[in-house]
Specification:
The chain is α+β, with helices and mostly antiparallel strands. It contains seven helices and seven strands, in the order ααβααββαββααββ.
Length: 313
Protein backbone atom coordinates (compact mmCIF):
# COMPACT_ATOMS: atom_id res chain seq x y z
CA UNK A 1 0.00 0.00 0.00
CA UNK A 2 2.80 2.33 0.94
CA UNK A 3 4.47 1.76 -2.42
CA UNK A 4 1.22 2.54 -4.22
CA UNK A 5 0.83 5.72 -2.20
CA UNK A 6 4.42 6.73 -2.89
CA UNK A 7 3.96 6.16 -6.61
CA UNK A 8 0.76 8.16 -6.53
CA UNK A 9 2.48 11.04 -4.69
CA UNK A 10 5.36 10.83 -7.14
CA UNK A 11 2.99 11.08 -10.09
CA UNK A 12 1.26 14.05 -8.46
CA UNK A 13 4.60 15.73 -7.89
CA UNK A 14 5.59 15.14 -11.50
CA UNK A 15 2.31 16.55 -12.71
CA UNK A 16 2.70 19.56 -10.44
CA UNK A 17 6.27 19.99 -11.73
CA UNK A 18 5.11 19.82 -15.35
CA UNK A 19 2.28 22.21 -14.55
CA UNK A 20 4.70 24.60 -12.92
CA UNK A 21 7.08 24.34 -15.87
CA UNK A 22 4.19 25.05 -18.24
CA UNK A 23 3.19 28.01 -16.11
CA UNK A 24 6.75 29.30 -16.09
CA UNK A 25 7.02 28.85 -19.84
CA UNK A 26 3.72 30.61 -20.29
CA UNK A 27 4.85 33.38 -17.95
CA UNK A 28 8.10 33.73 -19.88
CA UNK A 29 6.17 33.96 -23.13
CA UNK A 30 3.79 36.48 -21.61
CA UNK A 31 6.77 38.41 -20.22
CA UNK A 32 8.41 38.41 -23.67
CA UNK A 33 5.17 39.58 -25.28
CA UNK A 34 4.83 42.28 -22.64
CA UNK A 35 8.47 43.29 -23.18
CA UNK A 36 8.01 43.40 -26.96
CA UNK A 37 4.81 45.38 -26.52
CA UNK A 38 6.51 47.88 -24.21
CA UNK A 39 9.46 48.24 -26.62
CA UNK A 40 7.03 48.74 -29.51
CA UNK A 41 5.10 51.41 -27.60
CA UNK A 42 8.36 53.10 -26.58
CA UNK A 43 9.46 53.15 -30.22
CA UNK A 44 6.06 54.49 -31.27
CA UNK A 45 6.27 57.10 -28.52
CA UNK A 46 9.78 58.09 -29.67
CA UNK A 47 8.52 58.34 -33.28
CA UNK A 48 5.60 60.44 -32.07
CA UNK A 49 8.03 62.66 -30.16
CA UNK A 50 10.19 63.07 -33.28
CA UNK A 51 7.11 63.90 -35.35
CA UNK A 52 5.93 66.41 -32.74
CA UNK A 53 9.40 67.98 -32.73
CA UNK A 54 9.31 68.11 -36.53
CA UNK A 55 5.86 69.76 -36.47
CA UNK A 56 7.04 72.18 -33.81
CA UNK A 57 10.07 73.13 -35.91
CA UNK A 58 7.83 73.55 -38.95
CA UNK A 59 5.45 75.74 -36.96
CA UNK A 60 8.36 77.85 -35.69
CA UNK A 61 9.75 78.13 -39.24
CA UNK A 62 6.30 79.01 -40.63
CA UNK A 63 5.82 81.57 -37.89
CA UNK A 64 9.20 83.07 -38.68
CA UNK A 65 8.37 83.07 -42.40
CA UNK A 66 4.99 84.72 -41.77
CA UNK A 67 6.71 87.35 -39.62
CA UNK A 68 9.25 87.97 -42.39
CA UNK A 69 6.45 88.22 -44.97
CA UNK A 70 4.55 90.63 -42.75
CA UNK A 71 7.69 92.77 -42.36
CA UNK A 72 8.32 92.55 -46.12
CA UNK A 73 4.72 93.63 -46.81
CA UNK A 74 5.05 96.58 -44.42
CA UNK A 75 8.39 97.53 -45.94
CA UNK A 76 6.92 97.21 -49.46
CA UNK A 77 3.98 99.48 -48.57
CA UNK A 78 6.38 102.04 -47.07
CA UNK A 79 8.65 101.90 -50.11
CA UNK A 80 5.73 102.20 -52.53
CA UNK A 81 4.36 105.13 -50.56
CA UNK A 82 7.76 106.80 -50.64
CA UNK A 83 8.17 106.21 -54.38
CA UNK A 84 4.70 107.61 -55.11
CA UNK A 85 5.09 110.54 -52.71
CA UNK A 86 8.17 111.98 -54.46
CA UNK A 87 6.64 112.56 -57.94
CA UNK A 88 3.27 113.58 -56.47
CA UNK A 89 4.98 116.16 -54.25
CA UNK A 90 6.95 117.49 -57.22
CA UNK A 91 3.81 117.75 -59.37
CA UNK A 92 1.94 119.56 -56.60
CA UNK A 93 4.81 122.02 -56.05
CA UNK A 94 5.12 122.81 -59.76
CA UNK A 95 1.38 123.36 -60.19
CA UNK A 96 1.21 125.43 -56.99
CA UNK A 97 3.82 127.82 -58.35
CA UNK A 98 1.62 128.43 -61.40
CA UNK A 99 -1.73 128.55 -59.57
CA UNK A 100 -0.50 131.08 -56.99
CA UNK A 101 0.86 133.34 -59.71
CA UNK A 102 4.51 133.12 -58.67
CA UNK A 103 5.44 132.86 -62.37
CA UNK A 104 3.69 135.13 -64.86
CA UNK A 105 5.91 134.51 -67.88
CA UNK A 106 3.97 132.13 -70.22
CA UNK A 107 7.22 130.49 -71.36
CA UNK A 108 8.19 129.71 -67.75
CA UNK A 109 4.67 128.46 -67.05
CA UNK A 110 4.84 126.06 -70.00
CA UNK A 111 8.24 124.88 -68.78
CA UNK A 112 6.81 124.14 -65.29
CA UNK A 113 3.77 122.37 -66.77
CA UNK A 114 6.10 120.30 -68.96
CA UNK A 115 8.13 119.29 -65.89
CA UNK A 116 4.90 118.35 -64.07
CA UNK A 117 3.83 116.33 -67.11
CA UNK A 118 7.14 114.45 -67.12
CA UNK A 119 6.80 113.63 -63.42
CA UNK A 120 3.28 112.36 -64.13
CA UNK A 121 4.83 110.03 -66.72
CA UNK A 122 7.29 108.75 -64.11
CA UNK A 123 4.41 108.08 -61.73
CA UNK A 124 2.43 106.21 -64.40
CA UNK A 125 5.50 104.10 -65.23
CA UNK A 126 5.89 103.25 -61.56
CA UNK A 127 2.24 102.20 -61.26
CA UNK A 128 2.45 100.19 -64.49
CA UNK A 129 5.57 98.36 -63.31
CA UNK A 130 3.99 97.63 -59.93
CA UNK A 131 0.83 96.22 -61.53
CA UNK A 132 2.81 94.09 -64.00
CA UNK A 133 5.14 92.86 -61.26
CA UNK A 134 2.20 91.81 -59.07
CA UNK A 135 0.34 90.17 -61.95
CA UNK A 136 3.33 88.11 -63.06
CA UNK A 137 4.23 87.18 -59.49
CA UNK A 138 0.68 85.98 -58.70
CA UNK A 139 -0.05 84.37 -62.08
CA UNK A 140 3.25 83.50 -63.83
CA UNK A 141 1.48 80.88 -65.96
CA UNK A 142 -0.90 83.40 -67.56
CA UNK A 143 1.71 84.81 -69.97
CA UNK A 144 0.70 83.40 -73.38
CA UNK A 145 3.73 82.10 -75.30
CA UNK A 146 4.10 81.87 -79.05
CA UNK A 147 6.77 81.28 -81.67
CA UNK A 148 8.60 84.52 -82.41
CA UNK A 149 11.54 86.08 -84.21
CA UNK A 150 14.06 87.39 -81.69
CA UNK A 151 16.15 89.15 -84.35
CA UNK A 152 13.34 91.53 -85.33
CA UNK A 153 12.47 92.20 -81.69
CA UNK A 154 16.04 93.13 -80.74
CA UNK A 155 16.51 95.40 -83.75
CA UNK A 156 13.17 97.17 -83.25
CA UNK A 157 13.67 97.81 -79.54
CA UNK A 158 17.23 99.04 -80.14
CA UNK A 159 15.95 101.43 -82.78
CA UNK A 160 13.57 102.99 -80.21
CA UNK A 161 16.58 104.03 -78.08
CA UNK A 162 18.84 105.38 -80.85
CA UNK A 163 17.85 109.01 -80.32
CA UNK A 164 18.18 108.77 -76.54
CA UNK A 165 21.62 107.17 -76.93
CA UNK A 166 22.71 109.71 -79.58
CA UNK A 167 21.95 112.59 -77.18
CA UNK A 168 24.89 111.35 -75.08
CA UNK A 169 27.01 110.12 -78.00
CA UNK A 170 26.39 106.51 -77.00
CA UNK A 171 26.48 103.96 -79.83
CA UNK A 172 24.17 100.91 -79.83
CA UNK A 173 25.70 97.97 -81.69
CA UNK A 174 24.36 94.51 -82.61
CA UNK A 175 26.44 91.39 -82.95
CA UNK A 176 23.70 89.08 -84.14
CA UNK A 177 24.13 85.94 -86.28
CA UNK A 178 22.39 85.84 -89.64
CA UNK A 179 20.03 83.19 -88.32
CA UNK A 180 18.70 83.15 -84.75
CA UNK A 181 16.44 80.16 -83.93
CA UNK A 182 12.78 80.94 -83.43
CA UNK A 183 11.92 81.17 -79.73
CA UNK A 184 8.86 80.53 -77.52
CA UNK A 185 8.16 83.85 -75.81
CA UNK A 186 5.56 86.39 -74.88
CA UNK A 187 6.63 89.14 -77.28
CA UNK A 188 5.40 92.13 -75.29
CA UNK A 189 6.96 90.77 -72.07
CA UNK A 190 10.39 90.12 -73.64
CA UNK A 191 10.10 93.54 -75.28
CA UNK A 192 9.82 94.99 -71.75
CA UNK A 193 12.92 93.02 -70.72
CA UNK A 194 14.94 94.39 -73.62
CA UNK A 195 13.61 97.92 -73.00
CA UNK A 196 14.65 97.75 -69.33
CA UNK A 197 18.12 96.38 -70.04
CA UNK A 198 18.90 98.69 -72.97
CA UNK A 199 17.49 101.71 -71.10
CA UNK A 200 19.70 100.89 -68.08
CA UNK A 201 22.71 100.31 -70.34
CA UNK A 202 22.28 103.88 -71.63
CA UNK A 203 21.22 105.40 -68.30
CA UNK A 204 24.22 104.08 -66.36
CA UNK A 205 26.72 104.49 -69.19
CA UNK A 206 29.36 107.13 -69.72
CA UNK A 207 28.96 109.82 -72.37
CA UNK A 208 30.48 108.53 -75.60
CA UNK A 209 30.12 104.91 -74.44
CA UNK A 210 28.82 101.79 -76.17
CA UNK A 211 25.88 99.42 -75.74
CA UNK A 212 26.30 96.01 -77.39
CA UNK A 213 23.67 93.29 -77.88
CA UNK A 214 24.82 89.74 -78.62
CA UNK A 215 23.00 86.42 -78.95
CA UNK A 216 24.24 82.84 -78.90
CA UNK A 217 22.68 79.37 -78.86
CA UNK A 218 23.06 77.06 -75.87
CA UNK A 219 22.83 73.31 -76.54
CA UNK A 220 19.92 73.67 -79.02
CA UNK A 221 17.68 74.44 -76.04
CA UNK A 222 18.12 78.13 -75.23
CA UNK A 223 19.07 81.40 -76.89
CA UNK A 224 21.20 83.59 -74.63
CA UNK A 225 20.90 87.35 -75.06
CA UNK A 226 23.65 89.58 -73.65
CA UNK A 227 23.24 93.35 -73.23
CA UNK A 228 26.54 94.97 -72.28
CA UNK A 229 27.65 98.54 -71.66
CA UNK A 230 30.84 100.50 -70.97
CA UNK A 231 29.38 102.36 -68.03
CA UNK A 232 29.90 102.75 -64.29
CA UNK A 233 29.60 99.07 -63.42
CA UNK A 234 28.09 97.45 -60.33
CA UNK A 235 29.88 96.65 -57.08
CA UNK A 236 30.19 93.02 -55.93
CA UNK A 237 28.20 93.94 -52.80
CA UNK A 238 25.25 95.18 -54.87
CA UNK A 239 24.99 92.27 -57.35
CA UNK A 240 23.21 89.77 -55.00
CA UNK A 241 20.46 92.35 -54.31
CA UNK A 242 20.24 93.73 -57.82
CA UNK A 243 16.93 92.06 -58.74
CA UNK A 244 15.16 92.91 -55.47
CA UNK A 245 12.18 95.28 -55.48
CA UNK A 246 13.12 98.98 -55.17
CA UNK A 247 16.82 98.18 -54.81
CA UNK A 248 19.15 100.91 -56.05
CA UNK A 249 22.87 100.25 -55.98
CA UNK A 250 25.73 102.61 -55.32
CA UNK A 251 25.97 103.23 -59.06
CA UNK A 252 22.73 105.22 -58.93
CA UNK A 253 24.11 107.53 -56.28
CA UNK A 254 27.09 108.74 -58.24
CA UNK A 255 25.54 108.52 -61.71
CA UNK A 256 22.66 110.80 -60.64
CA UNK A 257 20.16 108.94 -62.84
CA UNK A 258 16.45 108.51 -62.09
CA UNK A 259 14.61 105.19 -61.86
CA UNK A 260 11.75 103.43 -60.08
CA UNK A 261 13.84 100.55 -58.76
CA UNK A 262 11.31 98.07 -60.21
CA UNK A 263 12.71 97.49 -63.70
CA UNK A 264 15.14 94.68 -62.88
CA UNK A 265 12.69 93.02 -60.45
CA UNK A 266 10.08 92.94 -63.21
CA UNK A 267 12.69 91.74 -65.71
CA UNK A 268 13.62 88.78 -63.50
CA UNK A 269 9.97 87.84 -62.93
CA UNK A 270 9.36 87.84 -66.69
CA UNK A 271 12.39 85.65 -67.39
CA UNK A 272 11.42 83.29 -64.55
CA UNK A 273 7.93 83.00 -66.08
CA UNK A 274 9.61 82.02 -69.38
CA UNK A 275 11.59 79.24 -67.66
CA UNK A 276 14.86 81.06 -68.36
CA UNK A 277 17.67 82.51 -66.26
CA UNK A 278 19.06 86.00 -65.83
CA UNK A 279 22.39 87.03 -64.33
CA UNK A 280 24.93 89.84 -64.46
CA UNK A 281 28.69 90.24 -64.72
CA UNK A 282 30.15 93.62 -63.86
CA UNK A 283 33.28 95.53 -62.94
CA UNK A 284 33.29 99.01 -61.46
CA UNK A 285 34.20 101.72 -63.98
CA UNK A 286 34.36 99.14 -66.78
CA UNK A 287 30.74 98.29 -67.40
CA UNK A 288 28.17 95.51 -67.02
CA UNK A 289 26.90 92.50 -68.96
CA UNK A 290 23.34 91.33 -68.40
CA UNK A 291 22.64 87.80 -69.65
CA UNK A 292 19.24 86.16 -70.00
CA UNK A 293 17.96 83.02 -71.71
CA UNK A 294 14.72 82.01 -73.45
CA UNK A 295 13.65 78.62 -74.82
CA UNK A 296 14.16 77.75 -78.47
CA UNK A 297 10.86 76.84 -80.14
CA UNK A 298 11.81 73.42 -81.51
CA UNK A 299 8.45 72.95 -83.25
CA UNK A 300 8.20 76.51 -84.54
CA UNK A 301 7.81 77.38 -88.20
CA UNK A 302 8.12 80.77 -89.91
CA UNK A 303 4.39 80.60 -90.69
CA UNK A 304 3.65 80.62 -86.92
CA UNK A 305 5.08 84.14 -86.51
CA UNK A 306 2.81 87.17 -86.68
CA UNK A 307 3.95 89.84 -89.11
CA UNK A 308 5.97 92.68 -87.58
CA UNK A 309 5.09 95.69 -89.72
CA UNK A 310 7.63 97.90 -87.95
CA UNK A 311 10.55 95.69 -88.87
CA UNK A 312 12.61 95.80 -92.03
CA UNK A 313 15.51 93.42 -92.61
Amino acid sequence: MDNIKDKKHYRNAEEIKKSLLLCMTDLEQQEKKLHDCIIKHIEEFEEAQKFCSFLNERCIARGKKLKELSCAKTRFVMEVSHEIKAPLGAIQSLLQVILKGYVSDPTKQIELIDRAYNRTGELLNLVRDMLDLTRIELHPDTLPMQCDDLYSLIVNVSREFKEKAANRNIVIKHKLPNSIPLVMINRSAIKRVLENLISNAIKYNKDGGKVTIVTKNIADEFVEIIVSDTGFGISDDDIPQLFEIFFRGKTVNYSRREGTGLGLSLTKKIIDAHGGNIWVESKLNEGSKFHFTVHIGNNCEKEDIKDDKNFNH
